[in-house]
Inverse folding.
């Protein structure tokens, strides 16, 4: 009888373990809840964080930030059409933010090489961007900063040492 009691106890324990694993997979991640509480305590605002895989979404009172890591080179589909597509290197991460002040995108690329700054400057001008300012930090134009404005769009590209960061702001 002692053996069957142990088998029954082990079976009940395994069933409870399976049930708790199933229930916990439906709930929020503990890390998400802890970060939410920390942000809520420091800001006094309700925050909702959802993370899954390489993506994290943070929402709070009309504001939303979405961070996508390892996007496999995917250009953001919701990027304004007037922004020239950055086609150098490989897209490593994309960040989106929506606030009452407007929308923001950040595209981070790696393995970037070539005459990027001058080429992107030409693309901005061909798309109608004004107030284009350029600072080239290398003789070949591979490193530096270029920015431009068009109506309610502001674009800044910073590049150097094989990486680049494109920031786009669209005012409402």
């Amino acid at each position: 009888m002692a053996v069957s009691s142990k088998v029954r106890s082990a079976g009940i324990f395994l069933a409870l373990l399976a049930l708790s694993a199933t229930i916990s997979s439906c709930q929020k991640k503990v890390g998400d809840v802890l970060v939410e509480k920390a942000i809520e305590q420091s800001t006094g605002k309700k925050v909702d964080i959802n993370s899954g895989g390489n993506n994290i979404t943070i929402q709070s009172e009309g504001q939303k930030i979405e961070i996508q890591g390892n996007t496999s080179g995917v250009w953001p589909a919701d990027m304004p059409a007037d922004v020239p597509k950055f086609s150098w290197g490989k897209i490593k991460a994309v960040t989106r933010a929506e606030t009452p002040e407007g929308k923001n995108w950040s595209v981070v690329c790696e393995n970037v090489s070539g005459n990027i700054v001058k080429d992107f400057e030409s693309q901005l001008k061909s798309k109608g961007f004004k107030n284009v300012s350029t600072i080239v930090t290398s003789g070949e134009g591979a490193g530096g900063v270029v920015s431009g404005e068009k109506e309610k769009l502001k674009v800044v590209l910073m590049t150097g040492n094989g990486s680049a960061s494109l920031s786009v702001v669209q005012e409402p």
In short: The longest strand covers residues 90-99. The beta strands are 48-52, 55-60, 63-69, 90-99, 102-110, 130-136, 144-150, 153-160, 163-170. The chain has two domains: 1-49, 62-170.
